[in-house]
Amino acid sequence: MTYDYEALLDEAFQMVCQALLVAEHKDVQCLPVGMPDGGRDALRYVDDGHGIIVYQVKFARKPNMIKDPLKWLINAIDDELPKIANLASRGARKYVLITNMSTSSHLDIGKLDKLNKHFKKSLPIPALCWWRDDLDRRLDNNFDLKLRYPALLTGADIPRLIMEAGPSLTEERRRATALIAYLSHQHEQDSTLRFKQAEVESQLLDLFVDVPMTSFHGPALGADDLQGRAFRRFIFTKAQITRYRSKSRLRPAAMLTENEVHGFQPGGRQQPPAHAAADVLLDPFFHQGVNRVVLEGAPGQGKSTLAQYVAQVQRVRILKEHAGIAKLPDRHRDSPVMLPIKIELRDIAMWLRGIDPWASSPGEEHGRAKTLESAIAGHIARYSGGFDFAVSDVHEVVGNRPVLLILDALDEVADLDDRLLVVDEITAALVRMDSTGQRLSVIVTSRPTAIANSPTLSGKKFAYFSLASIDQSLALEYTSKWAKVRGLSANDIMQLQRTLRLKLQSSHTAELGKNTMQLSILLNLIHVRGESLPDKRTALYDTYVDVFLNRESEKSPVVRDNRELLVSIHQFLGYYLHALAEKDKSSGRIETSELRALLVEYLENEGHPTELVDYLWSGVVERVVALVSRVEGTYEFEVQPLREYFAARYLYDTASYSPSGHERAGTKPERFAGIAGNTYWLNVTRFYAGCFSVGELRDLADRVCDLFDPELSGYHMLFPRSLAFFLLEDWVFNQSPKAVNQVVEKVFDDVGIRWLFASDPSLDGQRNTQLSPKSGGSRLVALFLERIGHTRSGDQHIALCNGIAIHDPAGAMTRNWLADNTSWFEDYPLEWAHLAGVTGLISRMTPQESDRFLNADASREARLSTLLIYGNEHVYASREILNEVCRIALNNRSTAISLRRTPSPLALWANVVIYTPWSAFATGDIPPENFFRAFNSDENPRIASLRKVSAELEAVLLSINASKSKGDLSPFGFARTFTQTLLEQFGFCWSALEIANIGASIPDQNERGAGAGALFDSSFPLIDRLRNARRRGNQKQWWLEQYSRIESPSDAATWAIAFFSWARGDVHLSLIGHFDDVIQRMDSTHRDSLIGAAAVTEQYSGRVPDLHDAGGSLAELNSVHSSTRAMYLEKMPLSAAVDFLKRDVATLALTPALAVRYTRLIARAGASEDIDWTECLEIVRLINNTKELAYDQPLSRTSYREFGTVSVDLCKEILDNAWELPDMFVSLAFMWSGGPKRVRAVQDIAQERGWFEHNYLPRRSSR
Question: Are 221 and 1206 in contact (CB under 8 A)?
């Protein structure tokens, strides 16, 4: 057997090789990884220190893809010959090459002997190669090293992993035997899908499809981009993986699509692309970046199935279940092995209240510590068959083995106090378990919370991800698996897929097919009924239950004779268990004896013979498989959406008729009001509203609109808008266009329009932001068009244009509106262009129309960027314009080129040009040349042609990286070569200047900028001149001399950034007037870039003087340009900064960089209470409405963290003025607006108001 060295990548592979050397030779010296090493990765001294053995590692990223491995190695050795000769002259006695390439052993003609022959012929000293087999055999006996690098663990290591001897061999065997028994039980439990659906048992590994997931910011205060960084690292590391994964849904960067490259542009507002969730969660590189994950998904979207699968992948390999292993894709079979522990959080909640949820007697207290570790121990003890397993065992396991802890369904902890208890305990327990050694990997699943500020795991410690909707290709993949499991013929499968493709073209069916559970139902219905499918979500479940019972009626007389009664019983049980879970903090299970007693009571109260209970029992728990037994002695609904559907049907079907004069309680409107404001009943409410008939829809619309009353729901709450949007999305009102329009107009007032795009989707359910035309999309476009003619400020204009783009993709309504508003082109050309772009009008402009648009009076850069975004053909044909794009991209730090929508190829290319210089210089994990590879695709000839324009830049990157990989360039040398080449190819540009200035800070004792005494002496590299400026921090006269030599805007920009970064203390303060003069000489683009650069200067300079105690200097700032003052905002007392701010906002035009900087200042001032928030909002309103700002320039770059916690009253004030404030303030208000008033349990409301003739209260402790 061999090991997966390729999963390590080059640096980790080198460290593994060094560790193997140390294991054999204690005197080996290991050289640092990733630094110039002169051809040495490790050394061993011999001959009493007079000689050395040199070890060098050569890592092949794709060994199986190399056609001639021997030639590859010989070429690598030949490249090293000068270094080896140099080492030999310095005393090297032997050279050992270590590689992950495989060899062949045929005498004389095998790769091993041929390479040895080349060694003898070419090298000046004896040499030897350690091939892959050599590494394998050394690694076989080094279990500890494999444990350090889990990607190297194989199935053969697992028994030892579990049974590894500790202080007591007997204790370890007990522990190991318990774990094997526990895993065996859990493997059996999770072997089938929870939603069984049909005649055959649905095996998990046969039906699983890898649903996509994407990252988004977590709850309050954000996640410091933890998930974004991890996701980027994961995706782009895939480009470096050596093994060939042709079947993987995750492609290397060389194959990235346009949108995928676009998704990672810095500062973009769109989410990173979605990728297969199991691929990500099982990947070792992803876990290097983050191993605390919260995975959110809508009802039925597959989060629990995904949790089942991820755990099962581990179990089948640990237990050596060969049939299961054979079903795994290679990438999952080869993923690092971890010990899986999966527990439902509703059970953890009960444990933390002292109740054992897994005991045979309901309500039994466990008498153990109320901690997560104790619950894990209890779970293992129960399902290992009764082994003793203690908290100390849990800590030992976690401390010595890779463990994956999956905590499923946080949303099913109904009581918010219980949920807070669970969240707090998870947080505390992970701190305790991390202290034991290895860091535990944790996945928590949940539905997105519908309550702002509800108990959630910290976004600073957990990376938040969301399951995305499945696309058509994934739906068809699932269809193929579904059909094969059912034994359908090839012709039937083709017909099924054809029908599904056809139905998914309809917007309402496409919406129903966006998650795997509803897709399963659709497939069942297509298989049974053909193309006749329901339009609505509730109707889909109605039809499914009907079809299921039709089939069971043919097989079972119990179902055939008592069909309606069995449906009623399931509806009743759905309501009862859901209400009980909320009211009594239970887990949603019911003990067997309690279920029988409850059925007897129900039959008696409904007037049915109670002796039917034994006859009906098989129908309830055997034939109609909605109820299952997962914990011995209890029953529960197999999936929560089924429980919620039946609960909704019970509420609707048993609602009272209340005519005038004969009023009765428990009517449909009363019940809607009782459940609609309760977030735990959100999915029930959606099913319930879907039951309403056409004659009831106008009244339902009235009830929905009543929820917006602040007295009922809390001020400007997210939840009523979310609920109303979900009901529109579910096609609830479609039979009544008037009801649709009524709800749309209520939802999308000033606050609602901002809510659709400004609020964090994680706050209210990761909602889809698109309505179909009939479900409100057409009315929404009309509303947006009415507003857009009077809206020109950045964030509001963006929101309206995005809304139109989403809901009028064909552009028919927008084109008609533009035809009726022709004066817009002359009066507001940029706004016109942005709106015209969403209709496709921009892309169809003639060359003459393009020229007219480009050569109008307004900013050419902004106009050009508009044409780029929407892909005008005339732009592609012009080399002159393409070159202009390059100059714009490299000269403008906050470029106007925006990619808010799906970009044109040229817009994508322009952003690659912008991003690449920074990526090349940064120490990040995305190789810059990978971006350019996206333009190599034969499928996109237009994109490929764009590469020719930037070929120089790519050549720079590739040549420099080649030198860097050979160790010829130090970090400083890399920065020097890169910036100089950039300047030679493109002339002076801001990107080169700022990168050179940052590079000047890189420590390098051999590079001090000596000789480059003058700042503008072009005979020396720019970085050397800036390096020299850094050494002149205290030399006032030198700075004055350089100031006197400024002749051009580029000189001014160079002096300004050097002075701001490197002049020290008194010198800096005494020359602020000169600095101001230079800033005013700079062109506006470079001035704005300088202001943007000032924000990061502190990270590498630290010399900008602190002005808190410099009163005289503050007086000096009174007379300088606002741009100059903006450079020092973070360095002066907040009160003084606010005073300057008030004056500048009132009197001066704001550039985008100034606006962002000032808005950040307001956040700090408001959070520190140095300025009244009302005054803050007034200033922000002025900033937001500044006409000089680019029409599509957002002010949303300030983090929530800068605000701190704000009051509900302030949130109210912000939302009262939502239309006049930028996104980040509106988002802030949605973030902190607080949850709705604490609602009463639905069971209490029902009992108090007499909804039912009989109230079914639990007679014994619930589970």
Answer: no
48 Cβ contact list (under 8 Å, min separation 6)? none
Burial of residue 322, with CB atoms counted within 10 A of its CB: 0-12 exposed, 13-18 middle, 19 or more buried: exposed
Give tens-digit pLDDT for 847-892: 777 777 777 666 676 677 666 666 665 655 566 766 676 677 677 6
Q: Are 72 and 60 in contact (CB under 8 A)?
A: yes
* Sequential DSSP letters for 112-160: HHHHHHHHHHH-SS-EEEE-HHHHHHHHHT-HHHHHHSGGG--GGGHHH
- Which stretches of 899-1048 are DSSP H helices? 905-921, 929-933, 941-946, 951-965, 971-986, 990-999, 1022-1031, 1036-1044
Residue 1167 identity (one-letter amino acid) = A
If one counts the domains in the chain, the total is 5
Q: Give a yes or no: residue 818 inside a domain.
A: no
Length of the chain: 1263
Last residue of a domain, one of 973, 1006, 1039: 1006
Q: pLDDT tier at 636 (50, 70, 90 boundaries)?
A: confident
Range from 434-443, 643-652, 1076-1085 that averages highest in pLDDT: 643-652
Instruction: Give the domain range for residue 971.
Output: 878-1006
pLDDT in tens, 693-735: 999 999 999 999 998 887 665 555 678 888 999 999 889 999 9
- Return the amino acid letter for 240: Q
List C-alpha distances in Å: 889 to 264, 895, 950, 1192. 17, 6, 12, 17
- Of the three residues 667, 694, 718, the one that is the final residue of a domain is 667
Residue 798 near residue 1194 (C-beta atoms within 8 A): yes
Place of tokens 């794709």: 62
Three-state SS for 544? helix
* Mean pLDDT along residues 1160-1164: 70
* Cα–Cα distance measured from residue 728 to residue 697, given in angstroms and rounded to the nearest whole number: 12
Spatial separation of the C-alpha atoms in residues 145 and 129, rounded to whole Å: 21
Whether residues 355 and 475 share a domain: the answer is no
Quickly tell me which residue has 């799906």 as its tokens: 902
Contact criterion met (CB below 8 Å) for 1118 and 1149? no
Rounded Cα distance between 876 and 941, Å, is 12
- Establish if 570 belongs to a structural domain: yes
455/331 same-domain check: yes
Maximum distance among all Cα pairs of the chain, rounded to whole angstroms: 110
Residue labelled with tokens 């964030």: 795
Q: CA 809, CA 937: separation in Å to the nearest integer?
A: 27
Q: Is 763 exposed, middle or buried (0-12, 13-18, 19+ CB in 10 A)?
A: buried
Q: How far lies 873's CA from each of 25, 120, 809, in Å? A: 66, 61, 20
Residues 365 and 345 in one domain: yes
Angle (CA) 704 708 711, round 5°: 125
Question: What SS3 class is residue 601?
Answer: helix
Q: What distance lies between CA 430 and its chain's CA centroid?
A: 22
Contact 511, 777 (CB under 8 A): no
Residue 803 falls inside a structural domain: no
Q: Please tell me the distance from the alpha carbon of residue 520 to that of residue 525, in angstroms, as a whole number.
A: 9
Tracing tokens 């944790």 back to the chain, one arrives at 442
Region class of 1120: left (phi > 0), else alpha (psi between -120 and 50), else beta: beta
Beta strands in 638-793 (DSSP E): none
Q: Band of the pLDDT at 86, cuts 50, 70, 90?
A: confident
Q: How many helices (H) and strands (E) does the chain have?
A: 65, 15
Q: Tell me the pTM.
A: 0.70
Strands 463-467 and 590-591: unpaired
1235 occurs within a structural domain: no
Distance CA 1205, CA 1231 (A): 10
pLDDT at residue 118 in the model: 92
Residues 905 and 997 in one domain: yes
Task: Give ∠ CA 882-888-892 in degrees, rounded to 5.
Answer: 160
The tens digit of pLDDT for each residue in 103-140 reads 888 888 889 999 999 999 989 999 999 999 999 888 88
